Amino acid sequence: MSKAISMDQIANFQADLDQRPEAKVIERSVTKNGILASSQDIQAMSQTTPVFSIDLDTGEVANQKQSGRCWMFAALNTMRHSLAEKFNLKHFELSQNYTFFWDKFEKANYFYENVLATADQPTSSRKVAWLMTTPQQDGGQWDMLVALIQKYGIVPKSVMPETYNSSKSAEINSTLNLKLRKDAVELRKLVAAGTSDDAIQERKEKMLNEVYRMLAYAFGEPVSHFDWEYRDDKKQYHIDQNLTPQSFFEKYVGWNLDDYVSIINAPTDDKPYNHTYTIEMLGNVLGGREVKHLNVSMADFKQLAIKQLQAGQSVWFGCDVGKSSDRQKGVMATDVYNKDELFDVDLAMSKAERLDYGESLMTHAMVITGVDLVDGQPTKWKVENSWGDKVGSKGFFVMSDAWMDEYCYQVVVNKEFLPDNLKQAQAEEPTVLAPWDPMGALA
């Protein structure tokens, strides 16, 4: 039975507040300075000094600016790290604008096909409503970037540099989503009218042509062939002519992207460890690589990341960056803010509870470039962010090991580092999760 708040209850609550001797001091602090400043624990900072027993030299950080391309920046950064070392190019970047163009274009087609697949459902259905909430966005996952590279390759940033819209994507996103929703109306009407599949695909092709034109105006026309001139760190001049994005990737990165797999830690009852999962309606390139996660314990999760770092390779990872994190100081630690003590309330939730009840999910992707091992156990991790060099230690963050336990959800590692039992588990067919599952969150 529902029960409204009574005036007597309010009087009791006020009486409880009045009898607390610390109440006015806390009230003055929080009203003046805010919750974070009032609850910050300066001592926590002393445990996150940026010194690591394994510390990869990865050069300067990149800057995604006012866009949600962290997943893309992080993935391309892992590739440029090996490229920079091999070819003496410490200040080199790959073009995030080039992959951004193709991601938007492929997401449009992916959206259209999902609209057609759900056209028999009412607009009030959860799947249709989920599709229309955000037809496309900047975010993505590792497997989606792999799908783009396998189809379109990559290029140096100098060949397809940033534009206003790639660095500040709100305008193109709102305009493109308007178009996609309008097109969804038409596609659903065509299906309802019994229009033939061929006629619908013909109309969809015209829609995609319009999307392509919009993206070319916003990001510039995508490069197909190019010459690459550069000077390396030793000031030596180089030129490589008549490259394609695919041949550039093969020559200068040369990774077998099928070797790199997504590992997650999601300790919820619906996802037993040592099994794989995918998410319905999550992706960009139709017919390309699907999103696939192997769920493992946190102990296995960390050991795989450490093995890759020990081999000299950085690690793409996804986390909930806004939780217990000081952006300006570049510190991610569970004790950096003590909100429980400030308000005298219990705010503790388990990692599984936060996932199940919508308190946390993956919001950001970065790169692990170091770890501090003490007696063989990790105590803190070095993180390369993509927010420029004005935050953290010239753009690098420190993540406590306890913070990794609570707020890290995904790493990408080479299959060679998986023990045999996890290799077998990773090869199995994935269980399909609902589109809104938290493991389908886009970084």
Automatic annotation (TrEMBL):
It comes from the Bacteria. CDD domains: Peptidase_C1B. Keywords: Aminopeptidase, Hydrolase, Protease, Thiol protease. It is found in: Cytoplasm. The keyword Protease applies. InterPro entries: Papain-like_cys_pep_sf, Pept_cys_AS, Pept_his_AS, Peptidase_C1B. Its main location: cytoplasm. GO terms for molecular function: aminopeptidase activity. The keyword Kinase does not apply. Belongs to the peptidase C1 family. PANTHER family: BLEOMYCIN HYDROLASE. This is Aminopeptidase. It comes from Lactiplantibacillus pentosus (Lactobacillus pentosus).
